[in-house]
C-alpha cells in the first residue's frame, strides 16, 4: 500500500531534526511535546515545579509573598505572552531545571547555596531572570512582570552574598569563642 505524500509541518520538522541531532525519537518527543505545550500557552509540569520551588525559596528570602499566588500569576503571564515571551520564560526556568541535582527536592537553604554557586557561571543571566520572575510573582502588584531584570539582579546580589554572610557568622558566633578576634581595649 502506497502512502500519500506528506505535507510539511512543524512537528515533522522538529521530529526529523531531533532524530538527526539527538539520535532518537524519545528525546525529540519531549522536545516536540514541550514546543506544542508552549505554542498552546501551557507550561510544562517540570517548569511549574521548578518555578514553585524557586518561588518558595524567594518567599523565604523576602519573608513575604505567597508562592501559590506566584505560580498562578506566572500561568496568567505565560498564557498572555506571545511566542517570544514564552520562550524567554521557558529559557529562564530551564536554566533553573538544569542546575545540578533536583532543585525542587532540595531544602530552601540548599537551593540558595546552589543558586549562589551558579550565579557566577554561564547561566547567570538566565537564572537571574528566573529569580526576577519569581520575585515579580510574589509581589502583590497585578501589573504583570514589570522590571524583572532589576528585581533579578537585586536578589541575585543578595543570594551571592549569603554564603559569605553565613561563613562570617560561624566564625564570630562560635560558642567557644574560637576564631573570634579579640577586641582591642583602648588604653587610657
UniProtKB/TrEMBL annotation:
It comes from the Bacteria. Residues 165-188 are annotated as: Disordered. This is Twin-arginine translocation signal domain-containing protein. It comes from Nonomuraea rosea. The lineage of its organism: Bacteria, Bacillati, Actinomycetota, Actinomycetes, Streptosporangiales.
